[in-house]
């Protein structure tokens, strides 16, 4: 992993978020830049970029920013689990399990939508094909 610090514009381009969105996530305490330049510009590490990428993955799944914040807090604490009580670890793992169940549920809903759209696409293709065939047949008669 590189210790290189990136400016917000580099990060935005790299992960496909707007500057405004990244600043908003900073204001919401979802991601905090690891450093600031002498001029006060936000500077991000690779770990910060990974965190923003995770937020970007969660957002389309209809998680609220508060839910995302809760998940990130649990992940942060578990990353330092060496000095945690086993009861606390169990509680955090339970939270992660709830989030995983929510993600799995949303995944199933999306699979159903994809299946429905694929079925609709096949039906429309068949209708288009049969309409073209009928049109061709009526021209030759």
Automatic annotation (TrEMBL):
Keywords: DNA-binding. Residues 5-74 form the HTH merR-type domain. PROSITE patterns: HTH_MERR_1 (PS00552), HTH_MERR_2 (PS50937). SMART domains: HTH_MERR. GO terms for molecular function: DNA binding. This is DNA-binding transcriptional MerR regulator.
